[in-house]
Amino acid sequence: MNLKEKKKKENQNHVGNDSPSPFSASHTIGSHLVCALGLALSFWATHHLFSTSLISDPVHTLFLIWVFETPILVLVYSRLRKNPKECSYWKAVGRGLLGLPLGALINIFGAIALGAPVGIQYLPRTINWSLLMSLLTFVPAACVFGSSWTDWQRVFAHTKPIGAIDYMICLPAHGTIIGAWLGAWPMPLDWERPWQIASHVMEGGGSTILCASNLQVDLVRIPSAYTATSAQNTDGEWPVSVSYGAMAGYLLAMVASLGFALVRGGASPSRLLKRD
């Protein structure tokens, strides 16, 4: 065996030791199904057990949703941890729980930078929304990858998933972010609802709104005084449409990731080494 073949074999063995155990199609479907049902159950509980909703009480509702969903998602993704021989199941659980507030801090700064209302009266809304966003985007990667910066870069910065588990982390996270961004642009359904107006003011930066008439969408300039008045009356409801968009994007991307995981999830690191 020459030096090149020996080095290649060592690299393959190293990758194999770092990889999680083989993940079948039934495991992929089951994991996604459990997470989706957990999110649906949290909505059911907030409505039927606590008689609240995102529109009527966004702070309480967002709090209940991320509290219900956190143990489900953390326990599921901790099973998929990288290098299970060296990282125990409960260590992965701890990484996920630690990643929840860390990811929330990143989301808080991002939300404020993109125009979320600032002030003590808005802080509970921003915190609970950020915790939900962190749960859907940051926590799964924290459970699986831990502090492996190479894997974080590969999945999020370079968007190059190489296996079923990578697709299960990458696509739902991106779907959540895109859905939240789209949710900030209100759908032309009922202009009288305050939470829809709030989305206009937040995303439009106080200068523009989108008005829909039948099948045409026109960009209309509005006076800054009107914008300031609307913002003062409605900024308190700002997370509602953004939260709906984030969860819708998460669920849609979860379906897409399931397809990618089943079709292309067989691309293992050893296959990439052969390709190189």
Short description:
The protein is mostly helical and 276 residues long.
Description:
The protein has 276 residues and is mainly alpha-helical. The protein contains twelve helices and two strands; from the N terminus they run αααααααααββααα. It has helices at residues 3-18, 25-48, 58-78, 89-113, 123-137, 139-145, 149-157, 164-183, 194-204, 224-234, 239-264, 269-275; strands at 208-213, 216-221. It has a two-stranded antiparallel sheet. β1 (208-213) and β2 form a beta hairpin. α5 packs parallel to α11. It is globular and about 45 Å long.
The chain-level structural class is: mainly alpha
- Uncertain runs: 6-21, 187-193, 195-234, 267-276
Q: What is the count of DSSP helices, taking H or I runs of 4+ residues?
A: 12
Rg result: 21 Å
Provide mean pLDDT, rounded.
76
Number of strands: 2
User: Strands of the largest sheet, in order across it?
Assistant: 1-2
Q: What amount of the residues lies in strands?
A: under 5%
Largest sheet: 2 strands, antiparallel
Listing every helix as H and every strand as E from the N terminus to the C terminus, the arrangement reads HHHHHHHHHEEHHH
Q: How far apart lie the N and C ends?
A: 19 Å
In which range does the helix fraction lie?
Answer: 55-70%
Looking at the structure, what is the overall shape?
globular
- Assembly state here? single chain
SSE layout and pairing:
Layout: H1 3-18, H2 25-48, H3 58-78, H4 89-113, H5 123-137, H6 139-145, H7 149-157, H8 164-183, H9 194-204, E1 208-213, E2 216-221, H10 224-234, H11 239-264, H12 269-275
Antiparallel strand pairs: 1-2
Helix pairs in contact: 2-3, 2-11, 3-4, 3-5, 3-6, 4-5, 4-6, 5-11, 8-11, 9-10
